[in-house]
């Protein structure tokens, strides 16, 4: 049994072909793109998407948190005052956990800082595509006819996003050569940019909307945006088979 066979077994039927509208900068539909869900996993695989999200989130942990136990805190081990006769409550050394500057009763003493786990390559690639399918089903993908700007200007990018109805967090996927659009979007609140060939399940699920131009959208679907596109396409065919 392959890795993909163990991801999820459900009764979801493959989704039918979808017509994705292509919008101009004024928010008007100028064309449509036919998307075959079979190229994106066929149906939404919730278990796989959660697994990919949790693993990616965990891999971002720094893992360097440390605290000292009472035995590791510098200070005298002498009892502060005698047990009886002072009228005070019983007290031990200054390094006790109940005193300021004392050690922790349950200290964090990890010796391994790496929290990294991983998915197989086929599962990771399928999760990335399936996250896009989930966005398409929810109508949260805005495909633009063009996102090229002559000069970097935040105001122009803000006008484009407002025209297509972006009112929540947004991920703008751009070609690596489209530097002006990246500079125009980087100062907008709740807007992040990413290269088309770096789209992943974590970033897609972390934002409500995805804004992408038509060329980038089609290159992601056919795998031509990735390095070694011939290998990527052959792997994709195996993943969605």
Describe the protein in words:
The chain is an alpha/beta fold. The chain folds into two domains: 4-62 and 116-239, Ribosomal Protein L4, Chain: A (3-Layer(aba) Sandwich), CATH 3.40.1370; 66-109, no CATH class. It is built from seven helices and six strands; from the N terminus they run ββααβαβαβαβαα. It has a six-stranded mixed β-sheet with strand order 2-1-3-6-4-5, sandwiched between helices.
Give the CA-based shape: elongated
Strand numbers in spatial order across the main sheet: 2-1-3-6-4-5
Level-1 CATH class name of the largest domain: Alpha Beta
- Average pLDDT taken over every residue: 88
Q: How would a textbook summarize the main sheet?
A: 6 strands, mixed
CATH architecture of the largest domain: 3-Layer(aba) Sandwich
CATH topology of the largest domain: Ribosomal Protein L4, Chain: A
What is the β-strand count? 6
Helical stretch tally:
7
The string of secondary-structure elements, in order, is EEHHEHEHEHEHH
Q: Helix content range of the residues, please?
A: 25-40%
**Strand content range:** 5-15%
Structural domain count: 2
Q: Which value, in Å, is the CA radius of gyration?
A: 27 Å
Q: Which homologous superfamily in CATH is the superfamily of the largest domain?
A: Ribosomal protein L4/L1
Unreliable stretches (pLDDT < 50, length at least 5) are: 1-11, 229-234, 236-241
Distance between the termini: 14 Å
Structural class computed from helices and strand pairing: alpha/beta
């Amino acid at each position: 049994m392959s890795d993909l066979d163990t991801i999820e077994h459900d009764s979801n039927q493959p989704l039918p072909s979808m017509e994705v509208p292509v919008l101009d900068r004024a928010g008007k539909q100028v064309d449509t793109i036919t998307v075959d869900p079979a190229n994106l996993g066929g149906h939404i695989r919730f278990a796989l998407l959660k697994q990919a999200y949790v693993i990616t989130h965990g891999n971002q942990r720094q893992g360097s948190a440390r605290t000292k136990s009472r035995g590791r805190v510098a200070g005298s081990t002498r009892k502060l005052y005698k047990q009886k006769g002072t009228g005070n409550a019983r007290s031990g050394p200054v390094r006790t956990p109940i005193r300021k500057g004392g050690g922790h009763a349950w200290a964090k003493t990890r010796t391994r800082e790496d929290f990294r786990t991983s998915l197989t390559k086929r599962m990771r690639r399928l999760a990335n595509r399936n996250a896009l399918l989930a966005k398409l089903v929810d109508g949260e993908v805005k495909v633009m006819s063009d996102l090229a700007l002559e000069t970097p200007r935040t105001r122009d990018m803000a006008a484009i996003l407002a025209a297509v109805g972006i009112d929540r967090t947004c991920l703008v996927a751009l070609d690596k050569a489209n530097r002006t659009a990246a500079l125009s979007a980087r100062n907008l609140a709740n807007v992040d940019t990413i290269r088309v060939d770096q789209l992943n399940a974590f970033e897609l699920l972390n934002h409500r909307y995805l804004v992408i131009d038509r060329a980038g959208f089609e290159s992601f679907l056919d795998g031509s945006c990735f390095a070694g596109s011939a290998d990527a396409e052959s792997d994709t065919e195996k993943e969605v088979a």
